[in-house]
Design goal:
By secondary structure, this protein is an alpha/beta fold. Helix content is 59%, strand content 8%. It has 2 domains: 312 residues, no CATH class; 119 residues, no CATH class. It has a 5-stranded mixed sheet, with helices on both faces. Strands 1-2 form a two-stranded parallel ribbon. Helix 18 links the parallel strand 3 and strand 4. The longest helix is centred in the first third of the chain and has 32 residues.
């Protein structure tokens, strides 16, 4: 009797903690949805691609394959994110940029709902509280990972359908999930299938699961092709690709690992020390223990996942400094710019393409290429290869990222015989330096 009362008390505390965290999530989503533009590490790519696709679609040009305003003219309109970006592009005339904000909030809410739908065992007490503290969910919301939230929500919807004996729906949702984010959600889907296989019957169940899973891979082939053919992929070294894959996948796979681990840890009826050894019992402290462990994991990963800066997205307003330049005679529409900024979360990149400019990179950090150049000629060849017309360097960019583009541009100033580019400083003020680039021999 005493053990039962203690178990009920601990479960009641878990319900209260879960309720408090649910209120925190509602408050956070409420803060996000106020913003026309949510400004964080991964948000501007969503606004940019949805804007471009919507512009082309509603301008009567159909759904675009390429997005020539990015990636020195070689970028794709859907390097990933086809489900949320295309649907948001269709709806964009109704609310402008705010539709992307709404889609981000819907993706986060959908991911939370899909988790509890896939794992109904976790809908109460410490199970629910731990899900709401999952670092993958917190990071996705604060960083603004729109394609990931939608892809993961679709994948967990597939898990829910499979557990309810609806393989057709499970396959459809899994296919959409992998098409939405081939580089991250597809490996997680593979892991989900691998985790499920031991629980299927050896003769028919496992073959059935693999058959349905194989069907989900067919539509992923063209989506994966877009990933590997994107400039960000082709311009990156093998080492960078592997490092980015590991550092991106490792924290995001927690979206599935933590709920599955919780289900396994919380199996059976809770019991105390007096129930030790009885079948179906687990210690009453298991729920609080996994909650504390997940909270500790969130604390440990808070800085590495860049969440101190990302949490500012709840209140941050878009930086408007670039608008001054875009309204000046120095701005040349249709020219290709290499814009190097530190603190604006790529807002200036979105503002520039909206104003009619083009970018030499995509919105991915590795596409921007932040490095020290060993020689002026090598740097000049890089600018020539990317068809750069202007380089715009803001503030202390070189000091923050330990790069030397200012120095290399100064070395290339003029038009030396045999140089890959001719360089001329157009403007210099307390905010930026603007260099004009002419490709020698072009």
């Amino acid at each position: 009797m005493e053990a039962s009362r203690r178990s009920g008390t601990i479960a009641g505390i878990g319900d209260a903690v879960a309720g408090a965290l649910a209120c925190a999530w509602l408050g956070g989503l409420g803060l996000l949805i106020r913003h026309r533009l949510v400004v964080s590490h991964d948000t501007m790519i969503n606004y940019a691609h949805v804007w471009y696709v919507s512009k082309r679609l509603w301008g009567g040009h159909g759904i675009p394959l390429r997005m020539p305003v990015l990636g020195h003219g070689q970028a794709f309109a859907f390097p990933y994110g086809v489900v949320p970006w295309l649907t948001a592009a269709v709806a964009r005339p109704l609310a402008g940029d705010w539709i992307v904000t709404l889609w981000l909030v819907l993706g986060i809410a959908g991911l939370l709902a899909a988790t509890f739908l896939a794992f109904p065992e976790l809908r109460r007490s410490w199970g629910a509280a731990t899900v709401l503290l999952n670092p993958a969910l917190v990071a996705a919301a604060l960083i603004g990972q729109l394609p990931f939230t939608w892809g993961a929500a679709l994948l967990l919807g597939a898990v829910a359908a499979w557990r309810r004996g609806r393989p057709g729906w499970a396959a459809l949702l899994c296919a959409l999930a992998q098409v939405t984010h081939p580089a991250v959600v597809a490996p997680i889907a593979f892991g989900a299938v691998a985790l499920r296989l031991p629980f299927e019957s050896p003769k028919t169940g496992r073959r059935r699961l693999l058959r349905w899973y194989g069907l989900t891979l067919l539509p992923m082939v063209p989506a994966a092709w877009l990933v590997v053919r994107s400039p960000v992929f082709e311009d990156s070294s093998t080492a960078v690709k592997l490092a980015n894959f590991v550092t991106t996948l490792a924290p995001r796979c927690l979206v599935l690992v933590i709920p599955v681990g919780l289900v396994l840890a919380l199996r059976g009826r809770p019991g105390g020390a007096t129930a030790a050894g009885r079948p179906g019992r687990r210690p009453v402290w298991t729920g609080p223990a996994v909650f504390v462990a997940t909270g500790a994991l969130l604390a440990v990963t808070w800085r590495p996942l860049l969440l101190p800066e990302a949490s500012g997205s709840l209140w941050r307003k878009p930086d408007r400094a670039m608008l001054t330049f875009l309204a000046s005679p120095a701005f040349e529409p249709a020219a290709t710019y290499r814009v190097l900024r530190v603190t604006d979360f790529k807002v200036s990149l979105y503002q520039l393409i909206r104003a009619g400019g083009r970018l030499d990179s995509e919105f991915f950090p590795e596409s921007i290429v932040r490095r020290r150049w060993p020689s002026a000629d090598e740097y000049g060849a890089f600018l020539r290869r990317r068809h750069v017309d202007y380089v715009m360097i803001w503030g202390g960019y070189g000091r923050v990222f330990h790069v030397n583009e200012d120095e290399r541009l100064a070395e290339l100033a003029g038009c030396a015989p045999g140089a890959p580019v001719c360089v001329r400083q157009v403007e210099r003020n307390d905010r930026w330096r603007l260099w004009a680039i002419t490709r020698a021999g072009s």
